[in-house]
Amino acid sequence: MNHPELDMAAMVERLEALRRELLADSESSRDARDTVVLDQTSVGRLSRMDALQGQAMAKAEEERRQLALKRIAAAFQRIERGEYGECIECGEWIGRARLEWDPLALKCIDCAD
After folding, report:
1. How many other C-beta atoms can be found within 10 angstroms of the C-beta atom of residue 2?
2. Is the pLDDT assigned to residue 33 strictly greater than 60?
3. Zinc fingers (dksA C4-type): which spans (predicted)?
């Protein structure tokens, strides 16, 4: 049984909206993650370093997005199994406010410490 205090339809919609947002962000930042190609004769060393740093930051952000997408998929699996909102550590229900703030939370506040 999923968390008894949650409106599961609203939570599913929220998770789907979060997934759509992450996918849209991923698509819009695709160019920033592409290989940096600069004309060495017209671009200075600092500009190249800035471009490479920007690319590294975009790649790191994409890794965070992909991790969040995996966590969303896992949340949908827990919903299907009727385990959504159950702490993976102690088995107690995660606080409603905690899940509303972070729908991807896996542990209750006591176990998260």
Report:
1. 18
2. no
3. 87-111
